[in-house]
Design goal:
Elements lengths: L8 H22 L4 H15 L2 E2 L4 E2 L8 H23 L4 H17 L2 H24 L3 H23 L8 H7 L4 E2 L3 H25 L1
Parallel strand pairs: 2-3
Antiparallel strand pairs: 1-2
Length: 213
């Protein structure tokens, strides 16, 4: 009798990301979208296919895109695109919040300092609350709910998670030497904590951007 290994949670999670990446590619192909939406969606598709946790320098697929250096660079481009879309849709000033948040994301990632990520997450939460207020004023209740959910998640889950994350901070120069590579691991315990926000961001964020196009 052939013994079959049970499907792991990592395989289930990764499969969901891959399926959504394929569907998102089809959505981009089927309809015309603004450039900022396309950039944001494409980066999320790439990140779904090559997921990584920059803080720990781990990945599922070993390639250049999975490294913290390339991955974080693509994320920065995606966030600039998201800021542009939100400014285009809401006419609110979003670039300052997003740029400052990115600076702290880079500092946290390079130096393995979770406190900087906490600051970045606070800025993301503020951006979410601003958009929630705008959409509520415009009677766009579904988008107001999505923005409120995002901010609530950041405040109640993501910020506390980074607040207690164990780490050994390193210097900026030492960090730069590390971010050009990643270590492949399929150990679910290494991915479990970050898997929730990654799925919500790669799937929910992409669909929201496509909806707001």
């Amino acid at each position: 009798m052939v013994k079959h290994n049970p499907i792991s949670m990592l395989e289930v999670w990764y499969s969901v990301l891959i399926v959504h990446a394929i569907l998102a590619m089809q959505q981009l192909y089927d309809a015309r979208h603004n450039l900022d939406v396309c950039i944001f969606a494409i980066v999320n598709i790439i990140s779904s296919i090559c997921p990584r946790i920059d803080f720990y320098r781990i990945c599922i697929v070993h390639n250049a895109v999975s490294t913290a250096l390339v991955g974080r660079t693509l994320s920065t481009i995606a966030h600039v695109s998201a800021a542009n879309q939100l400014e285009r849709v809401t006419h609110l000033s979003m670039f300052p919040l997003f740029i400052y948040a990115e600076v702290f994301c880079w500092a946290s990632m390079v130096m393995k300092q979770p406190f900087f990520q906490v600051i970045a997450d606070c800025l993301w939460a503020i951006a979410g609350l601003r958009t929630m207020y705008y959409f509520n004023q415009k009677k766009m209740q579904s988008m107001a709910f999505a923005a409120a959910f995002f901010s609530s998640y950041m405040i109640t889950i993501d910020i506390p998670m980074y607040s207690v994350r164990a780490s050994t901070p390193i210097t900026f120069m030492d960090g730069l030497k590390e971010i050009g590579d990643c270590t492949v691991t399929h150990d679910w315990s290494k991915w479990e904590q970050d898997s929730v926000w990654m799925m919500a961001y790669y799937i929910g964020g992409t669909q929201t951007a496509l909806y707001l196009n």
